[in-house]
């Protein structure tokens, strides 16, 4: 089109320089071969204009042709670089998917009388996972669940998360009680040279993981949990949303030597049809354009009549969260929804608490205390 118009306009009007746009624009979306082809066609078109108007040796057309050749070569080179980077990113994404499938595989959809759904939203662009973690393990009497958040971001956080996940998968089926299981997870966080690092200015070690460890028996309408400095789970029952706040939260994994405290096991009702929503602070700390935090509890309460099917609930929550945050989260976010489908035979007390010594301490277990 540019060539035809250039031939029709008066001789003093030169539209040839507009042909430079052809290879330049092509390089932004096509590969090196297509860019080179478009550049060659543009040079040929400019040569035809030069022959039909004056001569190829005309100084003005000569400079235009030379400039067009140079621009085409440069555009082809940048198209090659972009193509190479896209190929490299595709390989990295493939590796990230493979790493995620090993380190953080999807949770099973069913575990005994439970239906489970999970969602992971990484804050880093192109990342598949970060410092947030979750896992499930089937035991002889029920299901154990873990959700956690390693301090920091990037590879250090992923390393901490993998240590906790590995310890959970090895010991969740083996340890009889939650205090013992938490002790093994605590040992996993402090299992390498990070124990020798200097303390931060606030007196805490660099490596720690907030975590929530749950034990859901098959034949009791309850959930037992240990909260290690993690946001409490939310119970969706009868159209109400209730945070299962712990009366005595244990310190995060990796800080038991610094913040000596007992491991507190608490029991809450969890009947057939109820849903537990486990989440990390990346959900509640997501902000909108006005810097307001995401109102998770209010959102769930507003959806109370829409059904509590775990996959549908998480799909709706993920879409609403991303819209609220403008499509970009400031931190990794993990969500796990658990629904009990069976009808347990026996009623359970409203809530009770069992206290055990923190891992590594020599104190004797305290008496059972009701809350």
Q: Would you write up a description of this structure?
A:
- By secondary structure, the protein is α+β, with helices and mostly antiparallel strands.
- It is built from 9 helices and 13 strands.
- The strands form 2 sheets. It has a 7-stranded antiparallel sheet, with helices on one face.
- Strand 1 and strand 2 form a beta hairpin.
- It is elongated.
Short description:
It contains nine helices and 13 strands. The chain has 371 residues and is α+β, with helices and mostly antiparallel strands. The radius of gyration is 30 Å and the shape is elongated.
Descriptors:
371 residues; 6-stranded antiparallel sheet; elongated; 7-stranded antiparallel sheet; alpha+beta; single chain; 37% helix; disordered C terminus
Radius of gyration: 30 Å
Helix run count: 9
Give the amount of beta strand, in percent. 15-25%
SS-derived structural category: alpha+beta
> What is the strand arrangement across the widest sheet?
3-4-5-6-9-12-13
What does the overall shape look like? elongated
| Uncertain residue segments | 193-205, 360-371
Instruction: Please give the number of β-strands.
Output: 13
Instruction: Bin the helical content.
Output: 25-40%
The run of helices and strands is HHHHEEEEHHEEEEEEHHHEEE
- Average pLDDT taken over every residue: 79
Largest sheet: 7 strands, antiparallel
Distance between the termini: 82 Å
Q: Topology of this protein?
A:
Blueprint: H1 2-8, H2 21-26, H3 32-53, H4 59-103, E1 110-111, E2 114-121, E3 132-138, E4 142-150, H5 154-171, H6 178-189, E5 209-217, E6 222-228, E7 234-237, E8 240-243, E9 263-269, E10 275-279, H7 281-284, H8 296-302, H9 310-324, E11 333-340, E12 352-356, E13 369-370
Antiparallel strand pairs: 1-2, 2-11, 3-4, 4-5, 5-6, 6-9, 7-8, 7-10, 9-12, 10-11, 12-13
Helix pairs in contact: 3-4, 5-6
